Amino acid sequence: MEHTTEAMRKEVETIIRLMGFSDFSVTCADESRRLSVFINDAPFLHRYLPQFVLDLDFLVKSIARQKGSEVCFVDVNNYRKEREDLIIKLAKAAAKKASTTMQAVGLPPMNAFERRIVHSELSMHPDIKTESEGEGKTRHIVIKPLE
Questions:
Q1: Are residues 85 and 71 part of one domain?
Q2: Structure pTM?
Q3: Element (H, E) at 28
């Protein structure tokens, strides 16, 4: 039996409640399989939000795989959305610099998901190309002007 996004939403609510949070909401978008979590009563999250998002995402994906469900994408307090927006702005600025100076511009190391955002965002720019370089945690994108 397939585990729906709504069922995953309920499981995430249970997990968040068991973590000791009381002022929170979990919403889901079936078409994008995205679960958005908003936790209002956790001031420590400002400091630990990036790791908390990764840990919760790992936990939810593990549960989904175990139950034979489609994997959901988890965001907490819009951290991932804001990070995606920042990455897109950085990529566009680097692309402009590469095409203006006619020199390669390297971006900081990023995970595979973030690199995919950059490659996708810049794929329509006719005067540049993007390449991933490096290994593991040092893997990053280099934006090169086309000659």
A1: no
A2: 0.74
A3: strand 24-29
Is the CB of residue 17 less than 8 Å from the CB of residue 29? no
- Taking the CA atoms of the chain, what radius of gyration do you get in angstroms? 18
pLDDT at 69: 73
Using H for helix, E for strand and C for coil, what is the string for 32-75? CCEEEEEECCCCCHHHHHHHHHHHHHHHHHHHHHHCCCCCCEEE
Question: Which pair of tokens denotes residue 146?
Answer: 């086309």
Instruction: Answer yes or no: do 67 and 86 share one domain.
Output: no
As for how many domains the chain has, the answer is 2
34-39 and 105-106 as β-strands: parallel, antiparallel, unpaired? unpaired
Do 92 and 73 share a structural domain?
A: no
For 122, residues 6+ apart whose C-beta sits below 8 A from its C-beta are 91, 92, 95, 128, 130, 143
What pLDDT is recorded for position 2? Answer: 46
* pLDDT for 32: 65
